[in-house]
Structure formats: C-alpha cells, structure tokens
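New here. Your pick:
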Amino acid sequence: MARKQRYRPETESIEIERNVIERYLMLAKSYIKNNRKMVINSFLGLIILIIITVTLIFVIDRVITRDQKRFDEIMNNYAKYTMTGEKEKMQLVVRDLQRFVDSSYFGFPHAMGYYVLGNIYYDRKDYKNSDKYLRLYAEKDSSSILSSLALLKAAIACEELNDLKGALGIYKKLETDYAGSVIADQIYFNYARLFGKMNDIYNSRIYYDKVITLFPDSQFANLSRKRLFMIQAR
C-alpha cells in the first residue's frame, strides 16, 4: 500500500508567493511591451542624468581643488611679503586676491577670499572696501562663525565712515541672526555704544543692561557698567 503524502502548508505558501511575483513580472512585461517607447526614453533619460551628475561632481571637485591651490599660493605670498615688508609685492598679492574672488564662484577658498580682503582693507583703514568685502563674505557663508565677526567689523567700518544708519542696520541683523554667537556680548555692547553716538540714551542703556545681565563675567559687562555710570553722571 502506497504511503499517504504528508501535507506541508509551507510549500503551498511558497507557491502562492511565487505566483504573485510571476503575476507582477507578467504585468511589468506587458506594460513595457505596450509602452516600449516611453520606457526606453525614460531609461535613456536616467542614464543621461547619471552621467551628468557624475560629470558635475568630477568637475566641481577639480575646480575646488584648483581654487584651493591658487588661494593657498596667494596667502603664502601675502604672509611672506607681510613679514619682509615689501609693500609693492603685497599690493600685487591683494590684486591677485581680488582677481581670484572675481574669477571663482563657489567653495571655501572663494568665500574666504572675501573675508581676507575685507580684513586687509580694514587694517589699511580703507573702510569702504572693508565694509564691501566683509558683507559679501557674510552673505556667501552666513552659517560660519566668522560671518558674525565679519559683520561686526563691517559695522565698525561704517561707523568710521560716519555711516551710522548703515552701522545700525548691520547691528540689527547681528542681533536677529547671531544673538546666540560667541561674540553676542560684543554685539550688544557695540549696539549700545552706537545708540550713544546717536544720542539715543534710552536704547543705549537698554543694551548696556543686556550685556551686564546676560554676560556678567564678560569684559564687555565691566565696560558696560562704566558706560552706564558715565551716562547717569551726566
């Protein structure tokens, strides 16, 4: 007598899963057959997109590497001529740096070029160009900690140019965007000092008080206490 075959439920389950997969494959095959032109065009488009993406990544990497090398050369020359005091050669370096930022378009070296130029002009007391390049740097790299420093110097440059309205606009931006930065105490102190220049004693006191309240251990808190004492002694 032949043995009765045992029932294996797992075998039936596997067959059902295979049938589902087969159905999807048949549907896919049918869809491709009925929409052959669209599928081919989509596939070619995907290949082209991949090629373009890979090419862009390669080109961008080459450009950034080239720009970094050029920027390093310029900064090495600037450091060398600063130490030797060769003013004419330093001026050529500044010219090269200006050409570099004008001919590059993205990346860390491009942004830092503006920051370095702004500081060079600031040290030379060319406050108009300093304000210009420091603001440009802050626009291009707003997430960097250096952007708050750049704007702070730009504001001081405006003050030196007697552009108090321009300086006030920068301090407002600093308060809005960089109140949590590591130089927030200096931002509020300079804001208070600017209000004093503008004879706005009310707001000057408010911002000196902010420095003292928020940053009691800061050197600017001590300066603020002295400024407040002078204001009250008037």
Summary: Residues 65-162 form a domain with the Serine Threonine Protein Phosphatase 5, Tetratricopeptide repeat fold (CATH 1.25.40).
